Amino acid sequence: MSHPVVPSDTTTPTGGRIFHPKAAEPAPVTVVGKQAWLKNNLFSSPLNSAITLVLLALLGSFIPALADWLFISAHISGQTQDACTGDGACWVFIKVWIQPLMYGNYPDASLWRVNLSLILLGAVLSSPYWLPPKLRNKVDIMLLLAFPFMAIIILDGRLLGLEYVSTAYWGGFSLNLFLASASIILGMPLGFLWALGRRSNMPMARSICVVLIEFFRGVPVLALFFMGSVMLPLFFPEGTNVDKLLRVWIVLTLFMAGYMAEVYRGGFQAIPSGQYEASAAIGLSYWQTTLLVILPQVIKVSMPNILATSVMLFKNTTFLMIIGIFEILSTAQNALTNSNWLGGFSTEAYLFVAVIYWICCFSMSMVATRIERKLDTSHKS
Amino acid sequence: MTNGTRPTQPAGSAPAFYNNPRFRALFYQLLLVIGIGYLVFLIISNTLANMESRGIQTGFDFLSTTAGFDILMTLVDYDATHTYFDTFIVGLLNTILVGAIGIVLSTIIGFLMGVAYFSSNWLVQRLSVVYVEIFRNIPLLLQIFFWYFAVLAALPSARNSYSLGDAFFLNIRGLYLPKLISEPGAGLVYGSIVAAIIGIFALYRWAKRKQELEGVQLPVLRLSLALLIGLPLLATLLSGIPFTLDYPQLKGFNFRGGITVIPELMALAVALSIYTGAFIAEAVRAGIQAVPHGQTEAARSIGLKDSQIMKLIVVPQAMRVIVPMLNSEYQSLVKNSTLATAIGYPDLFTVFVGTSLNQTGQAIEIVFMTLAVYFAINMTISFTMNWFNSKVSLAERK
Description:
The complex is a heterodimer. In chain A, helix 3 (about 90-105) crosses helix 12. By secondary structure, chain A is mainly α. Chain A has 13 helices and no strands. Chain A is extended and about 105 Å long. Chain B is α+β, with helices and mostly antiparallel strands. Chain B has two domains: about 85-180 and about 245-390, Orthogonal Bundle (MetI-like fold), CATH 1.10.3720; about 180-245, no CATH class. Chain B has twelve helices and eight strands. In chain B, helix 2 runs antiparallel to helix 11, helix 7 packs across helix 9 (about 305-335) and helix 11 runs antiparallel to helix 12 (about 365-390). Chain B is globular. At the A-B interface, helix 2, helix 7, helix 8, helix 11 and helix 12 of A face helix 1, helix 3, helix 4, helix 11 and helix 12 of B.
């Protein structure tokens, strides 16, 4: 192939021609832009177009009605159900009942103690982000493990010389949060212990752990709560009266431990045996290997599943209303049967509880997805 | 004296017996067994003492005494004069019923929504994401309450029920369906259904052999559908339609006749299916995503059609991931069906652990029987799914 002949009229000092590229043509409208997007994503085939039109028609009839009910015709001013006339949602109901829904029957004057515990929970959970890296490993675990007991001391108040508030008054969404976090925090190390037992070479320890794990995973959680409230009192010596919330906490912790043990089992399987061999080669003992080498990797690998299990436990705390614990759903049911509020506000009440739960659970699963994506090193197209 | 130690080791520094790992393992386990044994002994003696002081009987004699309470919905003959064992059976059947409905519906919803995630239609794909994210993150009990107290309680009274062709009625008391009553000669129709199912299995085997030997593909799905519908239809016509329909009719304030689906069952089944369906959709999505994209590309390059790629390449590989997840979702659906007790659907938990336990006080026996049932149901699901998994999983190189 020969070089192209340079036209003589545009010669340059170097003897060649200056190359002037043409301006790029805009991409065709069939490929980029709004029109192309609509064509490719909504109207790519007759069937797709039909589906799109049907869905749009449904949304078009549904969303305005929903928006009208939620916001436009909704009532927010007033203090009684008489304030709600017409078709819209009655947010007065939520406004009046917000304190029981959030705090249960906790005395007004001591509400700051619940708030303090909630702030403490937030601080403890976010501590990895604000603690200096040097302190993190040592302080963080201590803080986490200490949280349930600190919260109990603050909420109970007797040890601090504050007014005593019996657990019968604890309730609302804060109780869901406290019970879930307290049992997740204690269930995680207990589950790890069971998972270790399951992997152990000692046949007795292994079989005991297998029975525990399979029992707590196989039994409906509601049956566990029932056993906690009906059978557990039979197990203690006569006359001992174990607090109802404490029993629930024990049951939830054991339940969490069973599920966590299974999650860790998956994590253990992902650890290459070279890690154990290398630890043995540098002379680490069993517990040093487990706690310093294996545990951090197991936690890292199984973090998405740990979070998913935590979300499940958090959702399951609503089941406690069936055994008479005043958590948020049971407070909502109480409010709905209150003689001053019989106007049928169940949709508003459930929607409110659902939104609160959804925000908490969805943000937790977002965190799980982010971690999963960060750990995922496979090549995706 | 220093048997088994290396000769270079000076005598006297032999490892002490308490440093021998085998001895240590034995010692720790002995400690564990003694500890657990003591705990169990304590629990049993406390329980016996407590039961004696409360006057609770032990043993399974209560099963043959009269229960004396009515149950809202029974699949078998039952009234207040029946025994506690009959309440157990009634509850068990109701649990199995709601579990079966829930498993079928949640599978349908879950697969539809899981596949919708891969739709080329943006709205459909968004719909799948929104469905999964909303229903997965709201507690199941709340959803049950929503359907039961907010949706079904807002239905009209019996007089103003929604109706479809004077055969189906929906009102606040429940859903009323016509009932199929078989007359003499119906045995032929039932027999033909069985024959059709056997025929489909035979057809499937024959088609497989034919393909292996001759490379000819038969339209197995269409043929088996024709068999399943055609044969019973033919039998019905030949035997002179041996069925009558019992339509529900409004008499006084309520409907009589037909099949009644009580609102408790509807709310529970709908909530369980939608909630579990969201998890199944997620499992299906994960399963399909787990199939490497190169598989589809390779299949396309050897000239398979899109439907063939889905059926022969993607689905079999996705099933490996989906089936174990389905297994655990089905099990948790059955466990979650105990929430029936919150709205009063008479499942095993409501009837047996609720009412029967309250009346007899025999907590240990009743809880033991109930837990055994849930374990048995979950074992059945687990075995079935594992069998299915071994069928669908690919033969891998060992």
